[in-house]
Design a protein that fits this description.
Number of strands: 0
Oligomer: single chain
Order of helices and strands: HHHHHHHHHHHHHHHH
Distance between the termini: 33 Å
CATH topology: Amino acid/polyamine transporter I
Mean pLDDT: 84
Shape: globular
CATH architecture: Up-down Bundle
Helix content: over 70%
Low-confidence stretches: none
Length: 470
């Protein structure tokens, strides 16, 4: 055991449900989406139908076909070969780096509400936001190196940071509606989505909000009975996600003006306004701290899952072998986790350069969307390709079999491509649109180029090693 440590199966059904909640159900998206008006509810339903359902069903079947460690990397490798598998894993791994800073910026803004006017001056201070992100990334990294049992409790507790505030929001919304009525008059025209460049970022964010449901599958060797646990956890968590996102957005749309819930502090500000209106201003501080906890939990869940990809790639020798090391005591891929955490801190610092706090937040969101959605092109195409292969007898298949699986995966593929295009368009409040677009496209190009270069180098080294043996 000391010379050949193995991963520990410490994740159960409850852990998976809470994991899906903490990494997918980010309360910030309800407020951000609400700024687009009533028509955003139609976009939520479209995202649920055209992206989340295809993604969840594909993840269910692919996780059941290949329940081992590696998730999306293994699925893509099995369908399209080593190069595609490596590139998919590389992009996915690094796509979360801007996400960490973005979600922790949101958490930092929420904390300020919890402490009242005393810290309000930090709301536009970039140093505060960067320091908050770096501190929590360090804590998350150390906990996940410490072991799956230590790391999962941060995820589980973080899930309360979305479940409790969203439940409170729904109750406040109902009470406000009963007492004061709706804040806006809804018509058929207001519910009809109208395309414009300014609302493109909202549409892409709504689809992005349903992402990451595939992440826990990367920890297949650390889940108890993954073939049985993952499908049921997906079903339960999917219901929670749909209610939380659509219900939470509806409250903001119908109860508050759109300008009151924009930016990284939008959700907490919305809670504040509703609570004050109902004479319950005391709720602000605990809700703000819970929302910050949700942000920390979301970063923690994504970091611990995505770090398993370079771990498996390292074992396949396409990254330095150290990435495939398992800690002899804690039984975690400690090198992969440590490198990932430090990389997230570096991105948090670099993303702030040359822009405001709100501008940096929007750039981080756009960078996360385009880079995270590229691997979904691999995922959905792998789902289609693997339908031609027989599945293990014990595998869970999409209801309806091969024809339904191909239809759903194709729908997900189209939705993914559309979301990538929309994510490049800056929001209306971005003051330097060319710089924002340049950052997003430049970072994405560098990301892909670095992955291709690493794969070529790894192949050359492998060929030379083979020559030396002969």
């Amino acid at each position: 055991m000391a010379s050949h440590p193995t991963l520990k199966r410490g994740l159960r059904f409850r852990d998976l449900v809470l994991f899906y909640v903490v990494v997918v159900l980010s309360v910030r998206w309800t407020a951000a989406a609400a700024t687009a008006g009533p028509s955003i509810l139609v976009i939520w339903i479209a995202a649920l139908t055209c992206f989340f359902v295809p993604l969840a069903t594909s993840v269910m079947e692919l996780s059941s076909r290949f329940p081992q460690e590696g998730g999306i990397y293994v699925w893509t490798r099995e369908a399209w070969g080593d190069f595609s598998g490596f590139l998919c894993a590389w992009i996915y791994w690094y796509s979360n780096l801007p996400f960490f800073a973005g979600v922790l910026y949101f958490g930092a803004a929420s904390v300020l509400f919890g402490f009242g006017a005393r810290l309000h001056g930090l709301a536009s201070n970039p140093v505060y936001y960067v320091a908050f992100a770096i501190f929590w990334l360090a804590v998350i990294t150390l906990l996940n190196i410490r072991g799956v049992n230590a790391g999962k409790w941060l995820n589980n507790i973080g899930a309360l940071g979305s479940l409790v505030p969203l439940t409170v929001l729904l109750l406040l919304g109902i009470a406000s509606f009963i007492r004061f009525g709706p804040a806006i008059h809804v018509t058929a025209a207001s519910l009809t989505p109208h395309w414009s460049l300014d609302n493109a970022v909202f549409w892409s964010s709504v689809f992005f909000a349903f992402s990451a449901i595939e992440s826990i599958s990367a920890m297949g060797d650390e889940i108890e009975n993954p073939r049985r646990t993952i499908p049921w956890a997906l079903l339960v968590a999917g219901c929670i996600l749909a209610i939380g996102y659509i219900g939470g957005t509806a409250v903001f749309v119908f109860a508050l003006p759109a300008q009151a819930v924009g930016g990284p502090d939008g959700f907490v500000n919305g809670i504040h306004l509703l609570a004050e209106r109902l004479g319950m201003g005391w709720m602000l501080a605990p809700m703000a701290l819970l929302v910050a906890l949700n942000a920390v939990g979301g970063a923690a869940g994504n970091l611990c899952a995505a770090a398993r990809l370079p771990f498996v790639v390292g074992m396949d020798r396409y990254l330095p072998p150290a990435f495939g090391w398992i800690h002899p005591r804690y039984r975690t891929p400690w090198v992969a986790i440590g490198v990932y955490g430090v990389s997230g801190m570096i991105v948090a610092v670099l993303s702030q350069a040359g822009t405001s706090v709100r501008g940096a937040y929007n750039v981080l969101v756009s960078m996360s969307v385009i880079s995270l959605f590229l691997p979904y092109l691999f995922l959905f195409s792998a789902m289609i390709r693997l339908q031609s292969r027989p599945a293990p007898v014990e595998a869970q298949r999409v209801p309806g079999g091969r024809p339904v699986a191909i239809i759903l995966a194709t729908l997900g593929l189209i939705s993914t491509a559309a979301t990538i295009v929309l994510s490049v368009i800056p929001g209306a409040e971005e003051t330097n649109k060319p710089l924002a677009v340049a950052k997003v496209l430049g970072a994405t190009a560098l990301l892909i180029g670095a992955g291709v270069l690493l794969f070529i180098v790894a192949r050359i080294k492998a060929a030379r090693a083979a020559e030396d043996l002969t």
